Amino acid sequence: MEVRTQDKYTLTFWEKLYIPEILKGMKLTLEQMLKKKDTREYPEEKWVPPPSYRGAPVLVLERNGVERCVACGLCSRVCPALAIEVQAAETEHEKERYPELFEINMLRCIFCGFCEEVCPEEAIVMSPTYEMVFTRYEDAIFGKDKLLMSAEELAPRLEFLRSHR
Amino acid sequence: MITITIDGKEIQTEPSKTIIEAAFEHGIYVPHFCWHPALSISGNCRMCLVEVEKMPKQVIACSTRCMDGMVVHVNSEKAVQAREAVMEFILINHPLDCPICDEAGECKLQDYAYHYSVGESRFDEEKGLKRKRVALGPRVLFDAERCISCSRCIRFCEDLAGYPELTFVERGDHVTIETFPGRQLENPYSMNVIDICPVGALTSRDFRFKARAWDMSETPGVCPGCARGCSMDMWVRQNEILRLTPRENQEVNNFWMCDRGRLESFRHVHEETRIEQPMLRKDGVQLAVGWDEALAAAASELRSWKGDTVAVIASPYDTCEDNFLAARFAREILTTQFLDILPHVEAGDQDEFLLREDKTPNSAGARIAGVTPVDDAHNLDSIVEGLQSGKIKAVVVSDVRAHEHAGFMQALGKAQFVVAIVSNASALTERADVVLSASTFAEKLGTFLNFEGQLQLLRPAVNTTENERWMGAFAMSRLDKFASEFDRWGRMKRYDARSAGRVFSLLAQLMGGKWGYDHPEDIFEEMAKRIEALHGLTYEGLGRWGVRLGSEQPGHLLPYKYSDVRP
Ligand code: SF4
Ligand code: SF4
Ligand code: SF4
Ligand code: SF4
Q1: Which one of A92, B62, B328, B499 has the minimum C-beta count within 10 Å?
Q2: How far is B3 from A127, CA to CA, in rounded Å?
Q3: For chain B, what is the mean pLDDT?
Q4: Per-position pLDDT tens, chain A of length 165
Q5: Longest dimension (CA), chain B
């Protein structure tokens, strides 16, 4: 059997003395303690993602309380993870069609943003939401009650999408 | 015979043919909206413009007749330019409705916009506004904005169905479709306009917004609505049939089917009355039991009634295979000659186009498969008489609509033991001592024989607990392929049902029969050996359109299959 050996590291005299090395280490620690911190006290302190961030996909709710989505099913078709289920139905509104059921399985979703890209109505967008914890499988399937988010709240992302068309 | 050249290909044809006909006959596709091989020529969409050498302008292929030595270009620069211009004109007033339009995904205009248009619009004025969601009749909805005024719907109603109900009104870009004053689009074939409309201007009120074309699987089948047995496609999502559409079969139904068949013939598959598993009467109460128990109970009871004290009522709604085994079960196992089917005729509901009075798909097939009384003393009337007089004491019924026969049901009340092999609950199953849950036409493989002698294959589109989608001859949609047990759309409703043929086979084995079949194809093989009319036939040989039994072969509308010629 072939065995690979690694050259053994031999300590220098100063290193063998130990004390100077400990002091060196303490100096580094002290220096870092006094520097500006990069870490955050999560979850007390939360990061606000920039508009380019792709968090959980959500549905845009218009001011009049109606979702933009017309249940065309394109997001569901394009989704590589088959995370989206849409069931269309008829509405009295001018747009004729709305999603009677709209579900995203957040355990399937890979946050690729394809759904947002394909949507002809700008109705599904990637929100800044990145915190998702579930204890049961069913909790990970978001229905319309959890998905709808007002257009105002999503304004930065909508703005970003328009400026990058 | 003359010779013309289309895109460099020399073609022998007749001067009576138009360029588009000659092209399609030879597998060359010419884009078109208003032309349809089964309809009269109207030549108003201009999409089929082709370049003909020595002609000053491009001509429409649908109404220009072939001439000897003609040189036609479908894809030359001039022809392509003309087509792009036509597409641009058509799209000027066409709304950007695809996201809410039911036609999306199977829309000629969408496909052509992709294949034959420049992909950009120079039109920045306001598009014309017209009426939307107009109910032209009880089954068809009209969207005037989407209409491209091809007149296919008008021509279908007038020329083929024989019910002039639709017409153009107004002119120019105000032109639209209306029904004649005081009339509705409500003829028995009205929904065919939905299929031939090249856009989503005419849509089904029943299917409206139910599913996207790409989310369903499409299984070729045969309509069980009447003795015509129209070829159709079953569109299934989440193991549920959502719609039927006619399938081109020039030996049976050309491109059409009737509204009643389209809307009603499959309802019982998913109805609440569906029997979900076998049931057995114990101390006067029907209880749900397993297959083994129910079959054993039926077999042991039937053993005591052998001979002419028992009768079998087979079913013209079941396949030839089912009926073949019903007949063998009666004659070989029960040793009775009391064997027949119930007729289901609606007198007068018949015409030259498609509809037949006989509202069963396979009466002819049941007969050919052996469900034929040996003489008048053993036919249906004699069975009813026998029941009345108490001579016949036990009955096995596989006709799901037996309850529609008042006389028979009344006589059945006298029977001492009734076995029902049916899919839906009715007065029959209430009376039955053993109910064996049968699968429907949409859940099994088998054959139907229509009144003209066309033997067609039906394939399963909906699965029962007996089979798995990935195992059988099932068409699979994307969702079927990738669903996991955790996805709601992966958990599908499945009935614990078996085909009548399989049930007869199992009963026969329990009662000491030496035969039994696991697969319909094995049954058919046996039938092909025993039944003269079926000699030499196989499932594979039946193909997509079936085979005409007997010497008289059907005439064809066209010398080619329209749906097989593709761009
Ligand atoms: S693509 Fe947009 S409009 Fe279409 S179903 Fe998805 S969210 Fe709704
Ligand atoms: S982000 Fe990607 S994976 Fe998630 S729902 Fe949209 S398309 Fe599907
Ligand atoms: S008819 Fe076709 S092109 Fe027009 S909106 Fe409907 S799918 Fe789109
Ligand atoms: S409704 Fe459809 S079939 Fe009728 S004219 Fe308009 S586009 Fe043609």
Answers
A1: A92
A2: 65
A3: 95
A4: 788 877 888 888 988 899 999 999 999 999 999 999 888 899 999 999 999 999 999 999 998 999 999 999 999 999 999 999 999 999 999 999 999 999 999 999 999 999 999 999 999 999 999 999 999 988 999 999 999 999 999 999 999 999 987
A5: 90
Q: Is residue A17 part of a domain?
A: no
**In angstroms, what is the span from residue B347 Cα to ligand 4's centroid?**
34
B213: which 2 tokens? Answer: 């074309």
Note down the domain range covering A81: 57-163
Tell me the CA end-to-end span of chain B in Å, nearest whole number.
26
**B166 close to ligand 4 (CB < 6 Angstrom):** no
Query: CB neighbours of A106 closer than 8 A, spacing ≥ 6?
Result: A56, A83, A132, A134, A140, A141, A142
Q: Is residue A144 in a domain?
A: yes
Q: What is the CATH number of the domain that holds A141?
A: 3.30.70.3270
The residue ranges of chain B whose pLDDT is under 70 are: 470-473
Q: Is residue A76 part of a domain?
A: yes
The answer regarding whether domain B93-209 maps to CATH 3.30.70.20 reads: yes
B488 vs A72, A85, A96: nearest CB: A85
Tokens matching residue A38: 């990069």
The pTM of the full predicted model, rounded to 2 decimals, is 0.93
Please check whether residue B415 is in contact with residue B305, taking contact to mean a CB–CB distance below 8 angstroms: no
Nearest CB partner across the interface for A70, out of B99, B132, B214: B99
Q: pLDDT value at position A95?
A: 92
Predicted confidence (pLDDT) per residue in B164-180, tens digit? 999 999 998 899 999 99
Q: Do B209 and A95 touch (CB under 8 A)?
A: no
CATH number attached to the domain at B279-440+450-457+497-532: 3.40.50.740
Work out how many domains chain A is built from and give that number: 1
Does A29 map to a domain?
A: no
- Three-state SS sequence of A37-101: CCCCCCCCCCCCCCCCCCCCEEEEECCCCCECCCCCCHHHHHCCCCCEEEEEEECCCCCCEEEEE
Contact flag B133-A96 (C-beta cutoff 8 Å) = yes
Q: ipTM of the predicted structure?
A: 0.89
Q: Which CATH architecture has domain B2-90?
A: Roll (3.10)
Is the beta carbon of B117 within 6 A of some atom in ligand 4?
no
Residue in A64, A50, A61, A49 with CA at minimum distance from that of residue A153: A61
CB atoms within 10 A of CB A129: 14
